[in-house]
């Protein structure tokens, strides 16, 4: 497994952690697995390449959203198709794309992978296609424009992707209705959790502070406690948008196996 940053964002911390002060620069972690039997597997896809161009971003994400999420540092080379290209992987080589949830910084590369099986929670896709008014900005309908042409595997609840315990999805709703985290077991590295947006920052996770965009604070708190218990039992947890946790993972062509 190797990771890349497919969505550097610089924004007021209060947009991530209720009532926090100051500004933060965060990565958006996308994980790439080269599996001996199952081929290339992606965990999330980052932001769409349209966001690299200020004018295109207005049309693709919607007016003012690029500025609101501080995506000015996102360049064409940050998009997952380019990052894979740098690693010698073509879009057609990607066999599985697993989504933690379908927000704009996680589902932006969906249309790059027509040959893959796209795995997501049913509750997440249903909500993403018809979100509440107030969550509409984070569900970009342009990201889902190919959804009816793709091979989509909808799952309900926890799921063992290959039936061998190596890729286990645990439903963790709250930030989004169908958010899930991935518990991976690698042969040498052992088990760890890619925690997606179960919290955006480590201090937030520890103190169980909501994010203003959390779909349900109530569900989020119980999901956080569930994942906290897994971490407490000894499984390392890596949050998608926490810089120090992204930096602790092998990046851009370095691998854990
Ligand atoms: Zn996110």
Automatic annotation (TrEMBL):
The cofactors it requires, by name, are: Zn(2+)
Record SMART domains: Lactamase_B
Task: Please name the InterPro entries in this protein's record.
Answer: MBL_superfamily_lactonases, Metallo-B-lactamas, RibonucZ/Hydroxyglut_hydro
Q: Which domain of life is it from?
A: Bacteria
Among Pfam families, the record links this protein to: Lactamase_B
KW Hydrolase (keyword) present: yes
Keywords assigned by UniProt, alphabetized: Hydrolase, Metal-binding, Zinc
Residues in Metallo-beta-lactamase domain copies: 27-241
Q: Which SUPFAM superfamilies match?
A: Metallo-hydrolase/oxidoreductase
The family this protein is said to belong to: Belongs to the metallo-beta-lactamase superfamily.
Q: Which PANTHER family would you find in this protein's record? A: 102 KBASES UNSTABLE REGION: FROM 1 TO 119443, QUORUM-QUENCHING LACTONASE YTNP-RELATED-RELATED
- What name is this protein filed under? N-acyl homoserine lactonase family protein
Q: Which organism is it from?
A: Cognatishimia coralii
């Amino acid at each position: 497994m190797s990771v890349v940053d497919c969505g550097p964002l610089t924004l007021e911390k209060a947009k991530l952690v209720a009532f926090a002060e100051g500004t933060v620069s965060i990565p958006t972690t996308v994980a790439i697995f080269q599996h001996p039997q199952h081929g290339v597997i992606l965990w999330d896809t980052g932001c769409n390449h349209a966001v690299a161009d200020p004018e295109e971003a207005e049309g693709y994400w919607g007016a003012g959203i690029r500025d609101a999420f501080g995506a000015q540092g996102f360049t064409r080379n940050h998009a997952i198709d380019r990052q894979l290209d740098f690693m010698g992987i073509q879009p057609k080589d990607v066999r599985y794309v697993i989504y933690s949830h379908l927000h704009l910084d996680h589902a932006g590369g969906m249309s790059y992978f027509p040959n893959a099986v796209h795995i997501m929670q049913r509750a997440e896709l249903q909500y993403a296609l018809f979100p509440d008014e107030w969550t509409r900005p984070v569900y970009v309908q342009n990201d889902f424009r190919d959804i009816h042409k793709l091979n989509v595997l909808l799952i309900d609840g926890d799921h063992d992707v290959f039936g061998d315990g190596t890729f286990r999805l645990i439903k963790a709703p709250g930030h989004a209705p169908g958010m899930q985290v991935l518990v991976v077991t690698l042969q040498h590295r052992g088990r760890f959790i890619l925690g997606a947006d179960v919290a955006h920052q480590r201090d937030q996770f520890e103190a169980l502070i909501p994010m203003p965009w959390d779909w349900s604070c109530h569900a989020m708190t119980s999901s956080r406690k569930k994942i906290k218990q897994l971490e407490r039992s000894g499984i390392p947890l890596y949050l998608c948008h926490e810089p120090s946790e992204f930096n602790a993972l092998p990046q851009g062509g370095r691998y854990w196996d």
